[in-house]
Design goal:
Elements (H helix, E strand, L loop, with lengths): L3 H4 L2 H9 L41 H20 L10 E3 L3 E4 L3 E10 L7 E9 L6 E8 L13 H6 L3 E6 L14 H7 L11 H16 L5 E11 L1 H12 L3 E7 L17 H7 L22 H6 L6 E6 L7 H17 L22 E6 L7 H15 L1
Parallel strand pairs: 5-6, 5-7, 7-8, 8-9, 9-10
Antiparallel strand pairs: 1-3, 2-3, 3-4, 4-6
Length: 396
């Protein structure tokens, strides 16, 4: 299946000439970054509804009991690494409460594991004043810390005006985002000095673990509607949001902003960042087995459309930017299109589009949402506003 010719407009091609991404050469394979749509050769994506043994999935029960676990197992064994069974818990302190005119802010510090000097995680929860019952919450994985340094979402006032809340947590407090840090954070706490293996989890799985531990905390709060917790992540944290949702069905909706390669972009398009680039530059995000796929993208049995489909039937919203061709926004769009059959099988709506929509035009009618904004590798205020409209269907 290669819907590229039907999906790429002249506008999209023109954008590539105006805002190409970085050109890099992969050390292991010598591959050079491609930004030319004419060099995207025909490709076939594995069918998300066909088992490895060739059996076609024709009902929701077979998807949930057989095919979905099969896809997750591959991601655990060959890409992100499985979360160990012996991971520690997070012990949360009593919250510090600040009351304002429109919101009540709670700041909570948590400690990973039993060691007194264990890694500290700071969580901020902001809820509207005088809510009408338990409120939905959007959890943001942030590049800043979860405490005083955290940046609120650009639509914070609109979230509160809807009668919803939001929470923020700093991802590096869960696991440092750097090489040679597997003796730190939750990975270090869980390893207890044991040597790593090729199957050992990487940072993305550690950050996804952190998302679930925050949800553990939120769902115990009677002021929060635990059935309506959405998760947002940008870039590498967009990948994390998709993987966390695949592992944790308590996540009611996902907003993956510019998640790119190994998130929502299709590797077989060979456009912008590639598997080779990720294996070379960010090996610690993945397990050791991921290295074997450098230069062998077409041999992988799972791709971004299947990672997106692991959230089905729950809603997923993805965005891309015109100045972010490195993340292959067209590939992100096509991955959502290719995830559609799983949503339809489960009685939900797909994206509702197969041709790339005009720029800055949100596609929100289905259970998969999309917006290709004019601008950079960022979660823009307009992206956020579109996500809130998308979420209105589920949280109102």
């Amino acid at each position: 299946m290669c819907p590229m010719n039907a999906a790429i407009s002249l506008l999209a091609i023109a954008l590539l000439a105006q805002a190409p991404g970085p050109v890099r050469t992969a050390d292991k394979t010598g591959h050079v970054s491609n930004y030319d749509e004419s060099k995207v050769t025909s490709y076939t994506l594995p069918d998300p509804l066909v088992m490895v043994n060739g059996t076609r999935v024709s009902d929701a029960k077979t998807w949930s009991s057989a095919r979905r676990p099969e896809i997750i197992r591959f991601y655990e064994q060959e890409i992100f690494g499985a979360i160990p069974a012996n991971t520690p818990s997070i012990a949360w302190d009593a919250p510090q409460i600040e009351r304002g005119d429109t919101a009540v802010t709670r700041r909570i510090a948590g400690r990973i594991g039993a060691a007194p000097d264990g890694p500290r995680v700071n969580l901020k929860v902001v809820l509207p004043v005088n809510p009408k019952g338990a409120v939905p919450v959007i959890l943001l994985m942030q590049f800043g810390g979860g405490g005083t340094a955290v940046v609120d979402p650009p639509v914070a006032s609109e979230i509160l005006a809807r009668g919803w809340g939001y929470a923020t947590v700093g991802y590096q407090e869960i696991q440092p985002d750097k090489a040679d840090a597997f003796d730190q954070g939750v990975i270090g706490a869980a390893a207890a000095g044991k040597a790593r293996t090729p199957e050992s989890w990487g940072d993305v799985s550690a950050w996804a673990w952190g998302v679930s531990r925050v949800i553990d905390y939120l769902e115990k709060d009677p002021a929060i509607d635990a059935r309506r917790i959405a998760v947002h992540g940008h870039s590498r944290l967009g990948k994390t949001a998709l993987w966390a949702s695949a592992l944790d069905p308590r996540i009611a909706a996902v907003y993956a902003s510019c998640p790119g390669e190994m998130g929502a972009a299709l590797s077989r398009r060979d456009f912008g960042e590639t598997v080779d680039d990720m294996a070379q530059r960010f090996p610690y995000w993945f397990n050791g087995n991921f290295q074997k796929w450098a230069g062998r993208w077409n041999d992988m049995p799972v791709y971004a459309h299947m990672l997106i489909a692991l959230s089905a039937p729950r809603p997923v919203f993805v965005t891309g930017g015109t100045e972010d061709q490195w993340a292959d926004p067209v590939g992100e769009f096509l991955a959502e299109v290719a995830a559609g059959p799983v949503y339809r099988l489960l009685g939900r709506k797909d994206l509702g589009a197969t041709r790339l929509p005009p720029l800055d035009t949100a596609v929100l009618d289905g259970d998969l949402g999309w917006l290709y904004h004019t601008g950079p590798h960022a979660a823009t205020p307009d992206d956020w506003k579109a996500f809130l409209r998308f979420l209105d269907k589920y949280f109102k």
